[in-house]
Structure formats: structure tokens, C-alpha cells
Amino acid sequence: MERIEKSIDVGCPVRTVYNQWTQFEDFPKFMDGVKDVRQLDDTHVHWHAEVWGKDKEWDAEITEQVPDERISWRSVSGALNAGTVRFEPLGPDRTRVRLVMAYEPEGAIENIGDALGVMSGRVEHTVKDFKKFIEQRGQETGAWRGEVHDSQKQSSSAGSTASQPRGGRSAASGSRGTSGTSGARGTNPGGSTSRPSGTTDPDAPGSDRVAGGAKPNGDWPFTK
Questions:
Q1: How confident is the model at residue 79 (pLDDT cuts 50, 70, 90)?
Q2: Cα angle vertex 184, ends 42, 189, to 5°?
Q3: Is the CA virtual torsion 35, 38, 43, 44 positive or negative?
Q4: C-beta pairs of 67-70 under 8 Å, 24+ apart in sequence
Q5: Max avg pLDDT among 18-32, 92-106, 165-179
Q6: Which domains does the chain carry?
Q7: CB 1 within 8 A of CB 215
């Protein structure tokens, strides 16, 4: 089981930085190799990317999500991976983003690539490209302020914007949701709900603690 951690300081408020990271369908705009991302429902996302020179697709499940603090996920089909991104306010207009990925290379090509440091380099490029994307915009393309615990969306008090469902793209702005609001993530009733063991939050205490007691495994999905 391999673990990679990268961090970067972003010149935007923590709320803006976090809100942008919730807009998964915008990831292809700044992530190399990612061809398409579709939000299936509040806790499932479908990915299409080039991985080690091969075209791959997989579904990921959001396991934990706390506004302005952290988002954790794991794959539930296809290319195995798990990760956590944390957001730390350093001031009113500065935020530290810490991305942790857990993976297990598949086959000789991926092991060679890892030995050459390609995988670590790709994670570093991801955080740098995200920083450039949000700093140039100055504001998020959308937002979702709900919470997820143990892979389940949490209900909110009556009248709270966080309780609203994640809908489709806004016809007015062309983005999923509105800056600083509950925003929307795309929906698809055919989203995957399977939850196989074998992936975990690499940022959690004890790297072997996963659902079902299995050893963690997976591969970093955005590295060619």
C-alpha cells in the first residue's frame, strides 16, 4: 500500500477553496488525464480518465465531508483508490490544502512509473493546478454545503440550505450551484451504490483500518 501526501497554500478564503473542490464536474478543467466527471448523486461520482496510458472509468463514493474542513472518498468500482483532502484556514484570504492519496500499483508499468516518481509528481501537479485555477477565478464555480458521514448524507434542520438536494447545472451560470450557497451536484438515478472493501481513508489513524477489516489497496487514478 502506497501513500502520497502533498500540500499547497492557496490565496483564497477557506470557504471559496472548499466550495470549489465540491464541484467535481469541473475537475477536468485543471486535472491532467481526467476526461470527464459526472456526479451520480450526493455521495457517488463517476470518473473517466487516462491512467498509465490506458482509458479507464470508475465510480467513487464520498465517505466523509465536512464543510471547510475535509472531503474523503474511496473507489467502489474500477480503478481502486482512496483519498482525503483537508482545508486549513491560514488567514482571511489564505488556505492550506493537503491532499493525501492511497494506492497500490497494478502491474509492471505502474510499478516502474512509481519508482521514477511519476505518481508523486502528478499529485503535486494536481494541487498546483487547482491553486492556479481558483486563484485566477477569484471565486468558486459553485458549492455544496451539506455533510456526509459514513458514506451517508446527513439531514439538516428545516430551512437550512444544506438540506437541499444536489441538482443539475444552473441554466443561468452554467455551473452546478451558486457561489456560497448549497449549490448543486448532478444527479443520476443509475449511480452505483456498491461498497466493496479494500479501500480506506489514508488520512485516518491506522492505515489498515477499513470497512470489513480488509487491508487497504487502490491506485492513484490521475497518473499516466
A1: confident
A2: 45
A3: negative
A4: 67/18, 67/145, 67/146, 67/147, 67/162, 68/14, 68/15, 68/18, 69/18, 70/203
A5: 18-32
A6: 2-154+166-213 (3.30.530.20)
A7: yes
Tracing cell 450551484 back to the chain, one arrives at 177
Cβ within 8 Å of residue 172, ≥6 positions away: none
Residue 4: pLDDT band by 50, 70, 90 thresholds? confident
Q: At what angle do helices 14-21 and 118-137 cross, to 10 degrees?
A: 120
Q: Is 15 helix (H, G, I), strand (E, B) or coil?
A: helix
Longest dimension (CA), the chain: 54
The whole-number pLDDT of residue 72 equals 97
Between helix 118-137 and helix 107-115 the angle, nearest 10°, is 70
Beta-bridge partner residues of 77: 59
String of b and e for 167-195 (b: at least 16 CB within 10 Å)? eebeeeeebbbbbeebbbbbbeeebbeee
- Looking at residue 114, its pLDDT comes to 60
Taking residue 165's Cβ as centre, other Cβ atoms within 10 Å add up to: 13
DSSP H or E stretch at residue 153: strand 152-153
Q: Where are the alpha helices (DSSP H) in the chain?
A: 14-21, 107-115, 118-137
C-alpha to C-alpha distance for 223 and 32, rounded to whole angstroms: 8
Specify whether the CB–CB gap between 64 and 180 falls below 8 A. no
